[in-house]
Protein 1
Amino acid sequence: MKRLTSVIATSLALGLSFGAQAGTLDDVQKRGNVSCGVSTGLAGFSQKDENGTWSGLDVDVCRAVAAAVLGDASKVQYKPLTAKERFTALQSGEIDILSRNTTWTHTRDTSLGLNFAGVNYYDGQGFMVSKDLGVKSALELDGAAVCIQAGTTTELNLADYFRANGITYNAITFDTSDQTRAGFESGRCDVLTSDQSQLYALRIGLQNPSAAMVLPEVISKEPLGPVVRQGDDAWFNVVRWSLMAMVEAEFLGIDSKNADKAKAEGKPAQKRLMGVDSDAGQKMGIPTEWAYNIVTQVGNYGESFERNVGQDSPLKIARGLNAQWNKGGIMYSSPVR
Amino acid sequence: MKEFKPLPDQPAPNDVVGPIHWIKENLFSSPLNTLATLLILAFLGTVIPPLLDWLIFSANWTGTNQSACTNEGACWVFVIAWSKQFFYGSYPAEELWRINACLIALVAIIIASYRLHKDLRNKVAIPLFLLLPFISILILDGSWIGLEYVSTDYWGGFSLNVLLAAASIIVAFPLSFLWALGRRSDMPFIKSVSIILIEFFRGVPVLALFFMGSVMLPLFFPEGTNVDKLLRVWIVLTLFMSGYMAEVFRGGFQAVPNGQYEAADSLGLGFWQKTLLIILPQVIKISMPNILATFVMLFKNTTFLLIIGIFEMLSTTQTALTNSNWLGGHSTEGYLFVAIVFWICCFSMSLISSSIERKLDTSHKN
């Protein structure tokens, strides 16, 4: 017994690392890196490559925060988390930001002691069909066999949507997304339903991706965004505005290539965002050039989107809802002034 | 008297030896056997050629990305491109020697405990074994011994499976021995504590233990206090292993004849002398098959770590499969590769185990 206690005691002593309880921003500045909870692997959102480098739309949020606070987007410590442990990891202080395709819902926002700092991707459940089917809308799917992954909210949304529209369907459930895809491919079902971001990833995995298409209907709201601990407003502001700065930079037409030019000779709003004659950074307790660092090192929201999930990536997801508000989407940033 | 001359040796008649006879005897001895043989041959004939074709002949071997996989067969390019991740995780490339050093040390100590003279064996190999996990941590972490610090977030791959299993087994070995002793003890407190510990860690599924370690435990620490996730997992695995091994040891203790205890007592040996010198060697000999079976089980259990987001080999494979540049459905190749690697390791462990059993075999059986 003595042995057991001493083993545990020494192991704990070895592994303990004390962080100050005061503010996450102070901790991050002292520690010199941002500890970021990401997914263990989700195509386009948080993924590791053969060299162990992380990339993705969710990963870029953390990189933006690191660029804003520390001036170096590479100073991120990635903590891969499964869906079950993500909130605990944030609550217990193991991570500073949770950026892991987490849907912003009322329950999560109000009862977990967490705050959502914004939305970096508006997702929603959609349908994928084979082009041969000749279907143009989900409303034409009467009597269809639908492939679906068991035990997800997807199942519930599907039932609601079809019942509300008085359409009959035949659900064929699978355990994993791989099996769901195989089921669709082998023709066991006419339609595959999942979140849109997933549909595109599943589509690439098909033998012949161009034979399948994603229908325009989105039947559920899944706003995904970064999460921080409640009650740490300074840090909440930094994360929220890092995300906003990416969206705002795209709106103002600043990207990683023309950021220097915008800073030197741009319009007043562009110069202000780039930190010229602006105390936006000081007000948050981070460097004046915070937004400039984000844009030069990570890029604006549009660049990040196209690089990770859009046309420059294998996924080829259309901007859709995630376009700027003046381009038909709902991505909108409050002004930085 | 005529001298006796033995006839020269004759070869055995052709119809009782030779391959043709063997085939006749074993494969076509009755109509039913003939039928079974033919069916199995037909089955193998239809299955093996396409399998070999997929695995080897029309497989893709060269290239660096998915587009190199143009042939019909398996896309081994996937496995080759990700091999560094599969074996070492994200550990920095220029520091890989540290992982290799730990693995070599492990193998060297195992060989040493075989080859060393038996007087030295216990004095050298056992302390080395017990020190190995801690030395490995020092080397892999690096910050305490002046090497570059590598956070446990970068540890991963198959080397993590091996080292974590080894570290758990090594620490669990003495621990479980103490628990087993405790369970046989006459002292009520020690006995009840041992029973509770053993039954708890044996009775709770290892997945539940992992979740407790990764999700529940951090909530009990004061805010801002972080115990490294890998360390928590190591402790959980060690305790889980100890629970199982304690029962294996208990079985061994019970199998040692009472006469041995009495003989030791009558020689005037104290409790620890009796236990360590007389009983323990016999216990280990008796329990060896079970101990090694438990090792193999624990080694395979390390793949469960994927459910709490630690990049051991299996979860690295899953991560690789979700990378948007590799979404072409390589799951068959990936999982097959993991299966082969684990099978090779577990099979070599059972070979080693049977050789240890032969070596330890001093039984009175014929």
Protein 2
Amino acid sequence: MPDTLLFAMEATLNGLTAGVMYALVALGFVLIFKASGIFNFAQGVMALFAALTLVGFQSGQIPFSHLINAIFGTRLHHFGWNMPTLLAIPATVAVMILLAILIERFVLKHLINQEPIILFMATIGLAYLLEGVGDIMWGAEVKALDVGLPKGMSDTVDELTFNWFGYGFFIDRLELWAAGIAAVLVASLTIFSQYTKQGRALRAVADDHQAALSVGISLRFIWVLTWSIAGIVALVAGIMWGSKSGVQFSLSLIALKALPVLILGGFTSIPGAIIGGLIIGVGEKLFDFFMQPIIGGATENWFAYMLALVFLLFRPQGLFGERIIERV
Amino acid sequence: MLDTQPEEGYVTADGRKIGGVAMEMKNITLRFGGVVAIKDISFDIRWGEVRAIIGPNGAGKSSMLNVISGFYNPQEGEIIYKGYKRPRMRPYQVARTGIARTFQNIALFEGMSVLDNIMTGRLHHMKANLFQQALWWGKASREEQENREKVEKIIDFLEIQHIRKTPVARLPYGLKKRVELARALAAEPSILLLDEPMAGMNVEEKEDMCRFILDVNDEFGTTTVLIEHDMGVVMDLSDRVVVMDYGKKIGDGTPDEVRNNEEVIKAYLGVAHE
């Protein structure tokens, strides 16, 4: 087999796993958009906040210690324990649920029946607020996140491909795990939304508020539920991205990468988020591979956005989104 | 008051049993800012009857229905339901007390299938908690099964078997109205509220809907409150009729009594208001 083909195959595989990471972030957006019609600008910051909280719990950091020290002149920083990961994750989940309750109580509740654009603006505010709160609570320095997921080159893939092709592919084990976890996450979310009472209620609320009320669905409960799920998905994305490149402010910018994924897959489709993520992941790796000799490197920075622009021109509803029909 | 029926209940000419008072509206007044939509209205709804609310456009009929279903909270007056004064409630809480409704402009979940739409009507009959559902434990799946059977019965009853998997958005208007009725019935309501169930239908569809409303009342003894413009339909369907005009009650009684009420005739013939 020619080398170029092998390298392209490796790039494709790497693209697939990277795509899963994009899809994880996009998933959070789709969930909230489907259930409430809100484009949640804060999704990326939620991932950052979740990762910060997880690291904070793990290392036994005292929340708001900088603030407390500044006011009272104390020198607090750590409780002096290390929380095991298995305990820190549920604790972080609890924090994300609490966050969902607070968002409902202080933001959404007051914006019932408002235009989607107003809710969107509110989530921009929420993003900045959460970013600030995250900094004050846990400090702004770059932190390493380790939840015990394997990292580095996967020997199995390397060995397998070497036996087949005489050339070992390099695949990050973390990204393989991310793919597996994303698959489980998507499967359980799909089952939840299609076959359970609350899932049905969730779809009902997304469809028609008035009708949902008339069959006895509490909008507020469903909103808290949706934002909790989005918070948990954000935590998963935060863990994956945090393990890969550290927990720092730039983590919240992965949300930007999710945008082209959403434009490709459609804002309302969970499978769309996955497939959109994969297309972008593979697309940018292959584009880089083939075009680098001609136009130079770093195409990954802009390829996804260019692809999104093309889609906006020719298929604005995305691959799997609901067709936009304007009835006059 | 033209209400001449005995308090403890009676049997209608066609043999249906009408019971005592299910719900009593006492001096209801509803205002939107300076506009008075409902002015000091009182009437009652009896178990098992078909009760109609009629009146010219803008009379406040839909507002009245919205008060009963909790979508509007009246500024004055009280609602006695099943013998107790109903506290201020949110619409979804009212729905859970056994009051189901349809809407004038159809409020269905357009993106969901007919079956899923009707299943939402049973949501508050399903008790499995979030964790049991998430894990699809015994109770959750058994419950889904039982509720599914009840829903299938209603689907049979309303003759919509052939469209049960169809997304609602694709259905014609008349069938959508029927699906909406099915969803309301799925809740096994104590009181069923129908807001213009026959608006915009052709003659054939109207006849079907009429038959279904009567059959539902007959078969399940469902207490039904409906708003309708078609006078022929109202007079055929209902046991008692409330007539509203400009937010006030101008008549209340059996169809015959109402037909001969002078004020009602005035309102419908369009005599000028002072």
